[in-house]
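Self-study notes.
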Amino acid sequence: MRKILRYVGLLCLGMALMIPLGMGREKDPSLKAPQFNLQCLTSQGSVCTIGGKSDKFTVLLFWTTWCPHCRTAMREMEAYSKEYSDKVRFCAVALGDPPSAVKAYIKALGITFPVGVDPKGTIGSVYGVMGVPTIFVIDPDGYVVDYGYSLPRIMYKLKRMLGS
């Protein structure tokens, strides 16, 4: 009898562990990344589309020119964008800054990944951004799978998702 109870207990434990891991469940629609198009300042005339289906994961950084932590995040993101460009799209959105200030900022830092401006903070509000830097990871199906404030922590988790 003890042997049966032990097996039933292990089976229940296994099932309980599978539920939080999302096995056998559909993705939560509330985690669908809001879709938007953004005029890219780093490439003349190009548009960066965020949300929706993609062939890669997307790392989306909300930042400002006056934030010292954002400067660090932008430099880190530039390095990551060069290392992971074959597997991950990188895009940054400047919140509340005039385009001329953002252009000067990204030129001074040598930023090459897509950067756009959200002068009124509309996109940031839709994403629920309450401070900067804020980083989101969007999977190829268009769902937010992670978010945070530290790009190295985000990239550590993303590398595990990518299997590298």
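Second protein, same conventions, sequence then structure:
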Amino acid sequence: MNVVIMTLHRSPFNDEGAKMLKNLTLLSASAYRKALPCVLVASISLVLAGCSSSSSSDSGFSDSESSDEITEAETGTIAEELLDDLEFGTLLGGLQRAGLQEALNTDNDGLGWTVFAPADTMFEMDPDFQDLPTILEQTEIIRGHVASGTILFTDLVPGTSITMQDGNEALISLAADGASIVVGGATIITQGRIVSNGVIHRVDSLVTTE
């Protein structure tokens, strides 16, 4: 009976294949031929598993790190956010005519902007706005919804006022419920949508300045 002596080469990835091959050192040629396919398949599987594990760890990104990258997203400017929201067409049109749409794409020399934004339905339901004889006068009303500087909800102190882009003041007060903030007669219903160059406060009516 012939005895087969095999030289063992260790895999750099694991020792399991080496242990299995070592058992063949003193097998007969016939037994070796029968066992070899199974050993080779097992060894290849273990080596591939080792490669896969090594490749995964070398990538440098865990599942949580990948998901963090996906969730990070920069917000647009005030003008871009208003354009993306189909409810603010009237406001955006007035800002464009007033020459403010382009300004609301800038950071206002680092100061930012604040917009008090009524939806289209608020303009439609306001008889005073609808009765204005010219587009120019309507545009002036819309200018009164924009203020220079980033004014957060916490900055809105009852009894003070904000200078708007129409040159007039909008008085800040407390609503009857004792919790809501009113700016120029318009109650804030969304407390500050912060974007890249300022903040948008959604209001339930048009702002009136004095």
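Instructor comment on the second fold: Residues 78-203 form a domain with the FAS1 domain fold (CATH 2.30.180.10).
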